[in-house]
């Protein structure tokens, strides 16, 4: 499993699934040459056959004092989209094997409320959905909750309602400070209340994107929407602001749906154009 050190904080990627998809499965574009126009630093981000890999993973942010899990993937036994129907993965065992049994997680951050980010919030035990992380506060932004709660379908009923019933959910603002060195940052557009997660320790910084991008090409062509963006114009503005904020700052950008190597740096070339490079912390 992949891990990164940001000062004294450790971030682990816990993989649920790597899915080879056509660009149109994640991006709203009919530009078939889009991915081919850019020489990616790792072949993993774009394949010669025109597909790319969409990774579904959770990220543990371990500050030493706190054990924060950012996003909980699809989960097992969930009737979601066909590609991910009724998964039966070892994700929870893998998390435990890394040294993070569910009871040891003190905070779950839901970057947004799409099914592939909140699935393991609960698990099916004797026919009933129960909280997977019984000792964790589950952070959801108020804007995000307000948007989806009205239309709470079976998904939210199974993944969020059991947490609400147990009093495990905190509705927070989009600039919420989660812990020392960990804070939320508004990233609206993919969904109204989506957040990125900023991790800082010593002189080092990382940012977990949430779904403000599904492929690194969107840093370079921010107007290319993700398929599920609720507000494509706002999402594009969020991507532009993100690049402005983090390019050439040495900030490690960890993509919530990027396959291995998953993280990299935004760099401006001599022509002012942006690149996403895997190596080269300044
Ligand atoms: Zn997603």
- Find the CATH topology: Metallo-beta-lactamase, Chain A
Following the backbone from N to C, one meets helices and strands in this order, namely: EEEEHEHEEEHHHEEEEEHHEEE
Tally of domains: 1
Please state the overall shape, judged from the principal axes of the Cα atoms.
Answer: globular
Query: Biggest β-sheet: count, sense, barrel?
Result: 7 strands, mixed
Q: What is the mean predicted local confidence, pLDDT? A: 93
- Portion in helices: 10-25%
In what range is the share of β-strand residues? 25-35%
Distance between the termini: 25 Å
Number of strands: 16
Structural class, please? alpha+beta
- Continuous helix count: 7
Describe the protein in words.
This protein is α+β, with helices and mostly antiparallel strands and about 280 residues long. The protein has 7 helices and 16 strands. Helices cover about 15% and strands about 30% of the residues. Strands 1-2-3-4-5-8-9 form a 7-stranded mixed β-sheet. It has a 7-stranded mixed β-sheet with strand order 10-11-12-13-14-15-16. A two-stranded antiparallel sheet has the order 6-7. The longest helix is centred in the last third of the chain and has 15 residues, at about 230-245. It is globular. It binds zinc ion. Zinc ion (ZN) binds near residues 116, 117, 211 and 257.
């Amino acid at each position: 499993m992949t891990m990164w050190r940001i000062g004294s904080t450790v971030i682990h990627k816990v993989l649920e699934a790597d899915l080879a998809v056509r660009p149109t499965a994640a991006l709203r574009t009919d530009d078939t040459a889009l991915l081919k126009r850019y020489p990616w630093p790792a072949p993993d981000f774009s394949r010669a056959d025109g597909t790319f890999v969409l990774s579904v993973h959770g990220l543990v942010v371990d500050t030493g004092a706190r054990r924060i899990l950012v996003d909980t993937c699809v989960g097992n036994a969930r009737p979601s989209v066909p590609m991910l129907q009724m998964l039966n993965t070892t994700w929870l065992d893998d998390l435990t094997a890394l040294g993070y049994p569910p009871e040891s997680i003190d905070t779950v951050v839901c970057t947004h409320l799409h099914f592939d980010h909140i699935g393991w919030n609960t698990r099916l035990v004797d026919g009933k959905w129960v909280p997977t992380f019984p000792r964790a506060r589950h952070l959801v932004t108020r804007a995000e909750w307000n948007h989806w709660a009205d239309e709470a379908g079976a998904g939210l009923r199974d993944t969020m309602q059991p947490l609400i019933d147990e009093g495990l959910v905190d509705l927070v603002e989009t600039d919420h400070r989660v812990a020392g060195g960990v804070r939320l940052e508004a990233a609206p557009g993919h969904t109204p209340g989506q957040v990125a997660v900023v991790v800082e320790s010593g002189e080092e910084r990382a940012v977990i994107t949430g779904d403000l991008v599904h492929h690194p090409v969107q840093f370079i062509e921010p107007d290319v929407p993700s398929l599920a963006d609720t507000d494509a114009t706002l999402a594009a503005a969020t991507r532009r602001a993100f690049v402005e904020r983090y390019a050439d700052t040495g900030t490690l950008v960890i993509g919530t749906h990027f396959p291995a190597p998953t993280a990299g740096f935004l760099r401006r070339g001599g022509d002012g154009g942006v690149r996403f490079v895997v190596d080269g912390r300044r």
